[in-house]
Amino acid sequence: MRAVLSQILILWLAIAIESWFFQKFLILNPKTSVEYAAVINLFSTCIGWLIFFIWESFLSKNELELLMGYILLGQWNPISVLLIVGAFLIYTISFLGKWKGLEILQLLLQVNQKKLAVSAPKKSSTLGHRHKKFAQVFTQAGVVLIAHTCSHCAILLVLYLESK
User: Fold this and answer.
1) By the number of CB atoms within 10 A of the CB, which of 11, 74, 108, 121 ranks highest?
2) pTM value > 0.85
């Protein structure tokens, strides 16, 4: 139960932080930025749990007990090199999953919007000078990386505080 509640807290925190970055730097409205953040974080979490279940089969019994003690009971024990490497891989894979997930989501929405555009009149949209500047400075991958890093730092802080 603790693992599920922690995962929900982590998801809410990540969605809140990342949606702010999407709204400011990808020039999305608040509702869309929260929807994008929610979808890519849920996608990333599902992929993460699948990778975790595959990865845990390669751990020794002792390392598995340490990991389960942390996940289920919040027990901080000495951390092995394998767990540190695993944490880095989780960070990297979840970033790539979020980045590609956002691209796929936008591609799917573009296809859907093209179908709707055939039946609806076209609207012209212009971005303000400030928004154009942000759009030029930050690439989509850069925004996702910054948002992902900030949300992971906040999550690590919450997990650390939770353990104390």
Assistant:
1) 11
2) no
